[in-house]
Amino acid sequence: MLRSILRRAAATSPIAQPWYLSSTANFSSSKTTKTNVKNEKNRKKSKSKGGDAAAADESAATDVEAALFEDGSRARRLAAEENDPSLNIGPNGQPLFTSTPSLSELTRKDSCTYFKFKMEELNEALPEGLPLGMVKEFEDSMRTAVLVRQSFLDLRDNFRRVVDPPMLVSSTKDTKVRKQIVLDGPVSCGKSIALAMLVHWARDEGWLVFYVPRGWEWTHGGFFYKNPQTGLWDTPDFLKFNETRLKQLPCQIFDLIPLGEGAGVGWMKDGTDTMAMPEGSSLFDLVDTGIKHTHAAVGVLVHLRRELSVVKDIPVLIAIDQYNSWFTFSEYEEAVTVRSTRPIHARELATVNAFRSMMHDDMMVGAFSHSTAVGKLRQQLPNVPAEARVSLPRYTLDEAASVSHYYMRQRLARRESFSEESWKKIYYLANGNGSEMRWLMPFMR
């Protein structure tokens, strides 16, 4: 995998690091110590009040949480139960985990089952990092498994039909093929996870995928300056691609690449403001140039976007998470007078300007993120096809049933308290919100 082109070289604030999974992780909870301390305080409080009912209830609730996370005992129990087939039973006696070996082979029959990932393969397929929602799911459930949802299968099959159109074309609305998609939907409906799974699948298929898991970082923090050649603001960022694929793809556009201000080193001392790629260069050579020459970082990134549009040998997919942050103002400001500044819009940033538009024939998918909420956007976004927006739903009742049985299997909920009535109460209380259901499971009575 390639190193970063340039990553916030002159940033003055702390840099958010990508989320990765360690192959040696034991999924022990970070709140173990805090839980034990709180549990002890509640026991003393209950004892001092002579069995006060409210204190006893609070202590009992904390006992449940402590029992689930205390000293890694839950992880040890799960390890001991790993090969017990009697525990891998979902709703209506159906298997809780799918036996399908790859994301490509999943079918509708696998809906509402869990697909297991290997941590090493997951980190290799998504070297840019995992979405926070996926990491939290893995940490809380203590297993690298994701629910197979029909919404993901529909998304995957849409792009599969783009590359390999079916022999028989249906005229139904549900089978309409879209080359550009914007994933929208309520908070915690799984947009980022669906996008990450799509990227994983596409790379398994041999596609070249440009994946940006944190689009918000393209408009916030780091080094930025105005390039007088383009009139746009340069904000250097990073790329990670499959090295072998890039070496196989030749550069097809040989326009001069504009040079900008290097991160922390200023402009070129000899006054050079452009550079050219030698004939016979590959896309790997192009990206490597941006890595080695800080003055060319942004120019290479913008040039690479044009190169991706003319690649015909293999399918190319552009996948942007936190896409909504590219339609509002960045945190950067331009000095107007000595005492005033104006906010710089995301469209004025060179990198965002190069990748934001969906008015082309390339395959592209962007996912909105409410964790980086930027305010309510209008329904019809500029440079986005009117029919591109697709709304992902929260958990259906069938999906919630599988999720609840899975959390019980992973000892996130107590087995003696688990019942259909209990998990349905949690489902309706959370209104299908996945993260809220996961948080409420330990409180099941």
Automatic annotation (TrEMBL):
Name of the protein in question: Small ribosomal subunit protein mS29
Keyword Ribonucleoprotein listed: yes
Composition bias, Polar residues: 85-102
Entry annotated with the keyword Iron-sulfur: no
Subcellular compartments: Mitochondrion
Annotated family: Belongs to the mitochondrion-specific ribosomal protein mS29 family.
A single MF term (Gene Ontology): structural constituent of ribosome
GO CC term, one of those recorded: mitochondrial small ribosomal subunit
Biased composition (Low complexity): 27-36
Pfam families listed in its UniProt record: DAP3
Keyword annotations from UniProtKB, A to Z: Mitochondrion, Ribonucleoprotein, Ribosomal protein, Transit peptide
Major subcellular location class: mitochondrion
Chain residue ranges for the region called Disordered: 27-58, 81-102
